[in-house]
Amino acid sequence: SWTMLNIVEEQTERIREQIGGGRAICGLSGGVDSAVAAALVQRAIGDRLTCVFVDHGLLRKGEAEQVEQDFVAATGVNLHVVDASQEFLAALEGVTDPEDKRKIIGREFIRAFERAAREITADAGAHGESTEFLVQGTLYPDVVESGGGTGTANIKSHHNVGGLPDDLKFQLVEPLRWLFKDEVRKVGEELGLPSEIVWRQPFPGPGLGIRIIGEVTAQRLAILREADAIARAELTAGGVDQTVWQCPVVLLADVRSVGVQGDGRTYGHPVVLRPVTSEDAMTADWARLPYDLLARISTRITNEVREINRVVLDVTSKPPGTIEWE
Ligand code: XMP
């Protein structure tokens, strides 16, 4: 549309002004925001942008492959993949506080980026140019909720706003800073990104790390990844992807309850389904999913994921609840 074309043109111009003849890197998370931010910057500075995909080990099933295949196929962008899952897990060991998790994940992200930037610069070789700019897909609601807006309380430090280390070596480029999610999607369409990317449901930067209530471990991640994949598959099969804004699946890793399966007593963990409807994530309502769909999700998760013996539904709106549990 005319307005979106204007936003694209204006942002492209601004990005060119800010970056000049420099180089930039952009972290891809698999989500819409970073993909659209990257595509905008690529439009502005071409192959002086290198995208970095940090596999932090907190992704859902299949997400790493999606970034490595779909996005690159759509844009032809330079992609540099960093496997940092061991570092993230080590840094998160013993950590249970949500804000501590976010800060640690944010810090590790930046470290991984800095490492990647050095590698990219080294690859660029004799040119002697350095990568000075870091592109982030920060949206207006992220800015507001992290206290960056005017007169708002600090609710959660979103990892892409708060939690940056003091020795940050990049200047930030945030072309989506004044946009809401629906506008970002329109910009993505305007830029010709495929609909699987543009209409992907939101997923937080800290990933499954903030959907495990309690310490994040490799084993807990594996359990949650399976449960989440089942829920997503059934939501898609149930035809509710267009009406549900997102549906976090949350593992209550420190909670156990008694169950019975076959002839045996079980003592397993619950997962929470948190399906919500929303316009922009600032407010949300719990989604009234069909009971049959909820039943299929519950049956499959408890049958297929041995450690989970209970599935519960979150029926809280935002406010007072936030969408994520941490
Ligand atoms: P809350 O839980 O604050 O979430 O109601 C609002 C929206 O933001 C997503 N979210 C994040 N996205 N980095 C992100 O990029 C983060 O640290 C983060 N925390 C929450 C959440 O999934 C929801 O869509």
Automatic annotation (TrEMBL):
<keyword id="KW-0658">Purine biosynthesis</keyword>
<dbReference type="GO" id="GO:0003921">
    <property type="term" value="F:GMP synthase activity"/>
</dbReference>
<feature type="binding site">
    <location>
        <begin position="29"/>
        <end position="35"/>
    </location>
    <ligand>
        <name>ATP</name>
    </ligand>
</feature>
<keyword id="KW-0067">ATP-binding</keyword>
<keyword id="KW-0332">GMP biosynthesis</keyword>
<comment type="subunit">
    <text>Homodimer.</text>
</comment>
<dbReference type="GO" id="GO:0005524">
    <property type="term" value="F:ATP binding"/>
</dbReference>
<feature type="domain" description="GMPS ATP-PPase">
    <location>
        <begin position="2"/>
        <end position="200"/>
    </location>
</feature>
<keyword id="KW-0547">Nucleotide-binding</keyword>
<keyword id="KW-0315">Glutamine amidotransferase</keyword>
<comment type="function">
    <text>Catalyzes the synthesis of GMP from XMP.</text>
</comment>
<protein>
    <recommendedName>
        <fullName>GMP synthase [glutamine-hydrolyzing]</fullName>
        <ecNumber>6.3.5.2</ecNumber>
    </recommendedName>
</protein>
<keyword id="KW-0436">Ligase</keyword>
<comment type="pathway">
    <text>Purine metabolism; GMP biosynthesis; GMP from XMP (L-Gln route): step 1/1.</text>
</comment>
<dbReference type="GO" id="GO:0005829">
    <property type="term" value="C:cytosol"/>
</dbReference>
